[in-house]
Specification:
This protein is mainly β. It is built from five helices and 40 strands. The strands form ten sheets. Strands 16-15-20-19-18-17 form a six-stranded mixed beta sheet, with no helix packed on it. A five-stranded mixed beta sheet has the order 1-34-35-36-37, with no helix packed on it. A four-stranded antiparallel beta sheet has the order 2-40-39-38, with no helix packed on it.
Length: 599
């Protein structure tokens, strides 16, 4: 009898979980709301709304604004669930619930009490990429790694769990991904010798479901040595150990502070891992698996289905954490389930997301010079590997040698700022950096909680290009080609949004919200907000009227000089000098600006 009752209880619990998941999916599919940071599980950042379109976007006006009360970099975007907008801030990670019926009247605010000692161990500004919603809860992953579930109606804390330890350099800057009965979270701190991991907590009570490390024993990285594949071949026993020297893997980096996507058909969550620690490649011989890797894992168990390491034995800090965008497209005459990823290393990758097969790997900024190509011949022993140019190899040039003219810089041809995809044009819209660097590695020792970088950098625009530091491009992922490109004075550090109105929105570091024609790139609208934009554009409707919203507040890695008041050109891992002119165009702020067409 007890066994029968237990079975019935499990069935009821499973049914409840399925219902909650179906309800969230229904909300995500409703274009009138914006329920998770990426817009949908596919990370497409596309909206079917078309009330604002290429013919009338020129008439866009500011509808209302809201000051967050916090300076430094504002990444991520608001959420809209029904008549309520949820807005987050950088540290101290305040969350506001705003009433859309009263132009943003505050319904409740949540103000975490965090130790300010976490600020010095946050690598590149005190940003946070936003809250998420599921099952009547707002989920916030704070800078100090405390994951909090708040009652969406009242702001009451329902449960919390600590995901890491800031005293050894573990922090958080990323959003979370609620999926099924779990909430998926990552960890930051690769510049402090943190070992990266992805963790799933149960949505109901915050209990641990599973944790998968980026490197270490098979039991830690959650692989089946014979079934988990890399470029179609089993990874084999101890794949997360045998390309590390000694115990270096224990402080190996590979952090997971980017974006996460999910395919219900495969039941896989997709994400990328960051740079290996330290930045001095001579101190960590080998491929350093599984840093710099696209990972596909079963949501229920965390077991890896496949890996693809993009930059083996990284020598340039080309984190692999950028978003994985999922599409269904025709490739070579066959309908495929694709994954597209714009890596920091300057290559745009297209893979089959079911099998992990590599289909396309092409440069999406023509100035990329550290590698000539990625080998695409499956029969080659170099299959899938970038072919490094000796002149730009910081390891071959040696410790205490300044390697110059490397493109892209460490912040990549694109960093975390998310691209968008329009199923109507079949194009990806990508905010990019157009920046090169000098890189001098040096020997460094590990001390828990202290920087573990081991390199000095300087950044600057390419010498033979348009003179600016960014481009906004349209990309064909099946051909690996740029369709059109818009030069920008500074890196485009804002996330893009494509809509059925045949327009694409993005923001600039000077503070402009821009709208361009999705097919041609022609600029249709611009408005300068109070501070530089590193947030992500979102859209929603309220009372049958479409709105567009953006957080402005300069900062992030590109704006760290302004955000943290730094003046030494080599500070901010080289970004302070590279973006020094930004102070001539914008200043610190923290504001939400909401746009609409006139009545």
């Amino acid at each position: 009898m007890r066994r029968l009752l237990t079975s019935v209880a499990m069935l009821v619990l499973s049914a409840g979980t399925a219902f909650a998941d179906a309800n969230l999916q229904k909300m995500i599919d409703d274009p009138n709301q914006w329920v998770i940071q990426t817009g949908d599980y596919k990370n497409q950042r596309f909206s079917k709304l078309d009330q604002i379109n290429k013919d009338n976007v020129k008439d866009l006006q500011v509808s209302w604004t809201f000051s967050t009360g916090v300076l430094r970099g504002h990444e991520g975007s608001p959420l809209v669930i029904g008549d309520v907008m949820y807005v987050h801030t950088p540290f101290p990670n305040t969350v506001y619930a705003l009433d859309l019926n009263e132009d943003g009247k505050i319904i409740w605010r949540y103000e975490p009490k965090q130790n300010s000692d976490v600020i010095p161990v946050m690598c590149c500004d005190t940003v946070n990429r936003g809250v998420a919603y599921a099952d009547g809860k707002i989920f916030l992953h704070q800078a100090d790694t405390k994951l909090v579930a708040l009652d969406a109606k009242t702001g009451e804390e329902l449960w919390s769990v600590v995901n890491g330890d800031p005293t050894i350099g573990e922090t958080n800057t990323a959003t979370v991904l609620p999926v099924k009965d779990k909430v998926i979270v990552g960890i930051s701190g690769g510049e402090f010798g943190v070992r990266g991991s992805l963790t799933a907590y149960n949505t109901e009570d915050g209990s641990l479901a599973w944790r998968a490390y980026s490197m270490g024993p098979d039991s830690d990285i959650l692989v089946d040595p014979e079934k988990t594949t890399h470029l179609g071949k089993p990874v084999g026993k101890d794949s997360g150990l045998n390309t590390w020297e000694g115990d270096q893997w224990k402080i190996g980096g590979g952090t997971t502070w980017g974006w996460y996507s999910y395919d219900p058909d495969t039941n896989l969550v997709y994400y990328g891992t960051g740079n290996p620690s330290t930045w001095n490649p001579a101190q960590r011989p080998g491929d350093n698996r599984w840093s710099m890797t696209i990972m596909a894992r079963d949501v229920d168990t965390g077991i890896a289905s496949w890996f693809y390491q993009m930059t083996p034995h990284d020598e340039w800090d080309y984190d692999g954490i950028n978003e994985m965008i999922l599409t269904e497209q025709e490739f070579n005459g066959e309908n495929r389930k694709l994954l597209t990823h714009f890596d920091r290393n300057g290559f745009g990758y297209t893979l089959d997301r079911v099998t992990g097969e590599l289909l396309v790997a092409e440069k999406y900024d023509p100035t990329v010079n550290w590698a000539t190509e990625v080998v695409m011949d499956p029969d080659s022993d170099q299959y899938g590997r970038p072919q490094v140019v000796s002149q730009y190899s910081t390891e071959q040039n040696g410790e205490d040698v300044n390697s110059t003219g490397i493109c892209p810089a460490a912040l990549g041809s694109k960093d975390q700022q998310p691209a968008s995809y329009s199923p109507e044009t079949g194009l990806f819209y990508v905010p990019t950096n157009h920046v090169c660097m000098d890189y001098e590695p040096f020997r460094v020792s590990y001390t828990a909680g202290q920087p573990y970088v081991g390199a000095t950098l300087a950044m600057y625009p390419p010498s033979d290009s348009h003179g600016g530091m960014g481009n906004f491009i349209a990309w064909d992922n099946t051909k690996g080609e740029i369709v059109w490109s818009i030069p920008e004075q500074f890196s485009v550090w804002s996330g893009a949004l494509a809509t059925s109105g045949d327009i694409v929105f993005y923001g600039t570091l000077e503070g402009y919200l821009k709208a361009v024609d999705a097919k041609t790139g022609e600029e249709l609208y611009r408005f300068k907000t109070p501070s530089g934009i590193i947030g992500n554009v979102m859209t929603y409707t309220h009372n049958d009227k479409q709105y567009v919203a953006i957080l402005s507040g300069v900062g992030g890695w590109a704006g760290i000089g302004l955000a943290a008041g730094l003046t030494n050109p080599n500070d901010g891992l080289g970004a302070v000098g590279g973006y020094a002119a930004l102070s001539d165009y914008t200043a610190l702020g923290g504001q939400l600006t909401v746009f609409a067409l006139p009545n």
